[in-house]
Design a protein that fits this description.
CATH topology of the largest domain in chain A: Rossmann fold
Distance between the termini of chain A: 17 Å
Number of helices of chain A: 12
Mean pLDDT of chain A: 87
Low-confidence stretches of chain A: 339-344
Number of domains of chain B: 1
Structural class of chain B: mainly alpha
Number of strands of chain B: 0
CATH superfamily of the largest domain in chain A: P-loop containing nucleotide triphosphate hydrolases
Order of helices and strands of chain A: EHEEHEHEHHHEHEHEEHEHEEHEH
Shape of chain A: globular
Helix content of chain A: 25-40%
Oligomer: heterodimer
Number of domains of chain A: 2
Radius of gyration of chain B: 19 Å
CATH class of the largest domain in chain A: Alpha Beta
Largest interface: A-B, 34 and 27 residues
Strand content of chain B: under 5%
Helix content of chain B: over 70%
Shape of chain B: globular
Largest sheet of chain B: none
CATH architecture of the largest domain in chain A: 3-Layer(aba) Sandwich
Strand content of chain A: 25-35%
Mean pLDDT of chain B: 92
Largest sheet of chain A: 6 strands, mixed
Order of helices and strands of chain B: HHHHHHHHHHHH
Number of strands of chain A: 13
Chain lengths: 344, 267
């Protein structure tokens, strides 16, 4: 009874690696000739999730948390130690080629284009590999050229492209065959702010207009905030959060950050700290940074009181970023309710 | 998934890449020719030591023809045997695996492009020069030439399959230099590139017959040079074919098992 709306499903997925822990140093190396000590690393340690068509999911975690390993199992590169994964009903590591036809993959740290060939020829190679009919290919390339500004790059060999240019070409390459699932493994890593913005805009567009299901692993929380409606957080191979990004913020991001500048600050810091829920984080000249822990309750009153008694020069109220929330989660290793969207 | 166009495309990528290494090209011809010169001189010296005009079934001229043709074929069969090792080492095997193409097919096509370049750039010049400098006698029997073409194809495939199987060991061990070295040693010793199998003592011949290496160079060369009588040709080709099938099954099994063991850098 397969729910056709579920594009990716992962059940109790495990991937173990054995790591060589044999002796280091000279005598250690000699000993290693006779006896190797191995340690088992549980890179992915019982991960479950279901992703529906059209979702844009952020898949985050510290380095070594198991993000890329999961992606590699979903794209057929690695075989799980146990558990099941399915993409569009296909088991990627069992029907690797069939799965590959339906997915697009971008590895931020490695290009899938041919290093010495002009970009245009790489695209042509991929057209043949993915058996895209010429007219469909021409139409798709036209739209991609426009959206990603590829025209000036087409005749350049990939090795001559800057990182940002190469990333745009890799994204285009992953979409040539119009897959309905896209895996992006740190696609914005190393890019400048403008390049990141352009790519984000493009990704949001294809998700919105074509319903492309997108899984994005990233360390850049702006990617998450701007693109991902759903967030899965991985820690040491296990999911610690799986739900709407907005829910994460409302549940755990109740703190507010107040930046306030006064005309005269004598003694203000001490007085403000006496107010319930207020912590002074930083002070620089006439500017104070305060953390207000009671959320929206009473913040109006607090601001009003400050304005009444002191001369406010400037004021801004900020919400905590997804990054700071995640950092808090990691630091506290808070036991979170795993599913925020009502699913079980 | 598999198509002649795709094969050609993958082959042309590696073919074009070789062209950029122009210094290698000239050194490659010089190098190959140097080997030919050394071997023919050694054989001449060896034959002159004995009163026997025929040694282990070869006349001097037959031996010179063998040495030259074995070299030409060996150069035409040049493959990059470290390619899978490097792909696993630097993680670029991931890219191969996300393509909806058989890993075997892609690597075979890439090897074909690589070898084709060596054929045109090195073998052909060496062959031409050698025809002028040495007494080379090739029987121009149509059946023989056809058998040679088939035998060369089988020999090439067997070499590729041996390299592929050894390369797959990288899925288990990552550092497979000792395996590659061992394979290279066996290939040099038993392949027939330097010494035809006929010269080996009977005891070693038993071992050689249990290994695929003589099927790679020795068999195609003796077919081409006429050393193998016409009547033996069907038998030789059949044996090669059996080895192709066996090595293919071995590679397929290793591939299936190796996939579970593969570890890729990153993330």
């Amino acid at each position: 009874m397969a729910d056709r709306n579920i594009v990716i499903e992962v059940e109790n997925l495990h991937k173990e690696f054995s790591v060589d822990e044999s002796g280091k140093g000279f005598w250690g190396s000699i000993k290693a000739l006779f006896h190797r000590r191995k340690r088992i690393v549980h890179a992915v340690d019982g991960v479950d999730f279901k992703i529906e068509r059209g979702e844009f999911v952020g898949y985050v975690g510290e380095n070594g948390a198991g993000k890329s390993t999961t992606i590699k199992m979903l794209t057929g590169i690695l075989v799980p130690t146990s558990g099941v994964a399915r993409v569009n009903g296909i088991v990627p590591y069992e029907e690797r080629q069939k799965n590959a036809m339906n997915i697009g993959v971008v590895f931020g740290q490695r290009t899938q284009l041919w290093w010495d060939l002009p970009v245009r020829e790489s695209f042509e190679m991929l057209r043949v590999i993915f058996r895209v009919p010429l007219d469909e290919f021409t139409a798709t390339m036209k739209r991609l050229n426009q959206a990603l500004d590829l025209e000036p790059l087409l005749t350049m060999p990939v090795r001559k492209l800057s990182l940002g240019q190469r990333m745009r070409c890799d994204i285009a390459a992953s979409l040539l065959h119009r897959p309905d699932v896209l895996f992006l493994d740190e696609p914005t890593i190393g890019l400048d702010v403008i390049a990141k913005e352009n790519i984000r805009t493009f990704l949001a567009e294809i998700n919105r207009e074509h319903g492309t299901t997108i899984i994005l692993t990233t360390h850049d929380m702006n990617d998450i905030e701007q693109l991902c409606g759903r967030l899965i957080i991985l820690d040491q191979g296990k999911t610690v959060f799986d739900g709407e990004t907005a829910a994460l913020k409302s549940k755990f991001g109740s703190d507010k950050l107040i930046e306030v500048e006064f005309h005269d600050v004598a003694g203000i810091g001490d007085r403000l700290e006496k107010i319930d829920g207020v912590t002074l984080i930083r002070k620089e000249g006439h500017k104070l940074w305060l953390r207000y822990a009671n959320g929206s309750d009473g913040i109006g009153g607090l601001i009003g009181d400050m304005a009444k008694e002191y001369q406010l020069k400037d004021l801004s109220i900020k919400e905590p970023s997804v990054e700071s929330i995640i950092r808090t989660i990691y630091q506290k290793r808070v036991a979170l309710p795993k599913h925020e969207n009502g699913e079980d | 998934m598999i198509s002649p166009t795709l094969f050609f495309k993958f082959a042309s990528v590696t073919f074009q890449k070789q062209i950029t290494y122009r210094f290698d090209y000239f050194m490659g011809i010089l190098n190959g020719f140097l080997y030919v010169f050394i071997f023919t001189s050694v054989w001449r010296a060896l034959f002159s030591q004995s009163d026997n005009a025929v040694q282990s079934g070869f006349t001097l001229n037959g031996m010179i023809t063998y040495a030259v043709m074995a070299m030409v074929i060996r150069i035409s069969f040049t493959q990059d045997d470290a390619v899978i090792y490097r792909k696993v080492q630097d993680g670029s095997v991931s890219i191969d695996l996300i393509r909806p193409v058989s890993f075997f097919f892609m690597n075979l096509a890439e090897a074909a492009g690589y070898s084709l370049f060596h054929f045109f750039a090195r073998s052909v010049p060496i062959l031409i020069i050698s025809f002028f400098l040495f007494e080379i006698e090739i029987p121009l029997e149509p059946a023989r030439l056809f058998a040679f073409a088939l035998s060369a194809l089988f020999g090439y495939l067997i070499l590729f399959l041996v390299n592929f199987a050894v390369g797959l060991l990288a899925f288990w061990f990552v550092e497979i230099f000792p395996f590659m070295l061992f394979k290279y040693g066996l290939l040099t010793l038993f392949g027939g590139g330097i010494v035809p199998v006929d010269f080996f003592p009977e005891v070693l011949k038993v071992v050689i017959n249990l290994l695929p290496f003589q099927q790679i160079l020795y068999v195609p060369t003796v077919i081409l040079t006429g050393h193998a009588p016409l009547s033996t040709l069907p038998g030789l080709l059949s044996t090669q074919f059996v080895w192709v099938v066996f090595m293919t099954m071995l590679s397929k099994t290793m591939w299936g098992a190796g996939r579970n063991k593969l570890v890729v850098q990153g993330g």
